[in-house]
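Give me structure tokens for this 195-residue protein.
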Amino acid sequence: LGRAHLEAGRRRAAYTIWQTGIREWENHSTIPDIRLADAYIRAVARQKHMSGWARAEALYLRLMEQADATSWKMLSEGERERLVQHLRETALVLPESVQRRTGLTVDSLELSVSVNPQATTGELIAGWWRSQDPLSATGRNERLREHLRRVSHAHDHFEARGRLDDRGKVYIQLGAPRERTQARLGPGKEAAPHQ
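Here you go.
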């Protein structure tokens, strides 16, 4: 229902549906519904719903915890696909030492990510995200929020056919550029770029 509202251009209605679903799910289950959690997290990051950030962070960490080898086998193909997308986005910012221990590897030249969950992948990734919190006394993980904002921006601006291009992957890794330069091609047969 939320996706139908979103496709019809009613973002607020979609967000409200997802928020209601998340509340109901939290009251009755301990294992996150991956599709619902994914939709909610991405809606909060895209719309910058300040009231939803704490819940989105908690859901994200719970999603990551589902990425261990045991949980992996119990997921449907669709759930795995959504979780793999989050793992690929996370792998782009993980240090190599954590990548090796989790079964997530990033080819530094191609920026391709392979996902092979290990027994403790979810626990390691969730723990790593918790360790990245620069101000743990605030009750929010500013680094995780920044990551989710970058992911949202990358998907909005650097996605083709459901996949991020290299610009999107670099944006997730490094964030917004400090400086921008525009180049355009000049007229003529041998059009040379000029600023």
